[in-house]
Amino acid sequence: MKKNIMIKKASQNDVFDIYEIEKTSFKFPFSVNEIRRMLIHDYALVAKIGGKVVGYCIFKRKNSNFFIVSIAIHPLYRRKGIASLLLSKTIEECKKLGCRKIGLHVRTKNMPAIRLYKKFGFKIKKFIPSYYSDGESSYYMELPL
User: Fold this and answer.
1) I need a surface site. Which of 20, 21, 73, 77 has the fewest CB within 10 A?
2) Is the pTM of this model over 0.90?
3) Could you tell me how far CA 50 lies from the centroid of its own chain?
């Protein structure tokens, strides 16, 4: 499967595909307009198979650091190594841009995501109770580069 996956910079043409994945992945998805704005002001990569967006990662610069705002894979394409490939390319891109560390928030109950981040060397730096609007807690994780 991995050989058919193309990772490329996201464009405004990818907004609705990203939104569809957001809706199926998160309780409180970003709106189409929020995604559109992020694609203009921040960085985003998409994973495509046969021209179809199957995953994405949106990240933003904060001084010499980067923060992963959202990363998700379409439910039909999960557990196929796409998230690992996308995260690897995101880390590469952040290094090219002079990043010192990458941070992110993850729900404390999202064990598949936590395992993925740990596999890439992210460490839990902080527990944040009631971080999300539904009251669920977050881990803040970081990867020094």
Assistant:
1) 20
2) yes
3) 21
Residue 130 pLDDT > 80, yes or no? yes
The amino acid at 41: H
- The fold of 2-144 is Aminopeptidase (3.40.630)
Q: Are 122 and 45 in contact (CB under 8 A)?
A: no
What is the identity of the amino acid at 62? K
Listed by start position, the domains of the chain span 2-144
Q: Who wins on pLDDT, 1 or 18?
A: 18
Tracing tokens 């939104």 back to the chain, one arrives at 19
What percent of the chain has pLDDT above 70? Answer: 98
Q: Other CB atoms closer than 10 Å to residue 34's CB: what's the count?
A: 16
Tell me the C-alpha distance between 72 and 44, whole Å: 12
* Order of strands across the sheet that contains 43-49: 5-9, 43-49, 52-62, 65-73, 101-107, 138-144, 123-128
